[in-house]
Amino acid sequence: MSNKTLKKLLDERARLLAELGTLPRMLHGSWVERYSVCSRPGCRCHSGDRHGPRHYLVVHESGRQRQKYVPNSQVDAAQAGLAEYRRVREIVDRITHINLALMKEDAYED
Fold first, then answer.
1. Which of 55, 77, 85, 89 lies in disulfide reach of 70, CB 3.0 to 4.6 Å?
2. What are residue 51's phi and psi, to 5 degrees?
3. How would you list the strands of the sheet with 30-36, edge to edge?
4. What residues does each domain of the chain span?
5. pLDDT (tens digit per residue) in 43-57
6. Rounded Cα distance, 96 and 104, in Å
7. 88 three-state secondary structure
């Protein structure tokens, strides 16, 4: 691998590491929308027009899944946080590939 290619990989890794600092609102979890049926016998929800959606973020806490309610006012922010987390995973995957390429060329640095 040429010095130019090595420099390119190192520069890309530095750029990706810097980008991680621009993703402060990331949320690691899964998105769930739920519709429900209430206990009022004559309600429209019993004929198929259910209440909702209610929004939840499913996260792992102490080795268990927990559903955290997300109010309607925070839905856009929560979905943006999930998108930021997806970007974090993309960045980590790319950095891993770069580091493996550097290791192969014995140019990996601690």
1. 55
2. -75, 140
3. 30-36, 51-61, 64-70
4. 3-104
5. 999 998 999 999 999
6. 12
7. helix
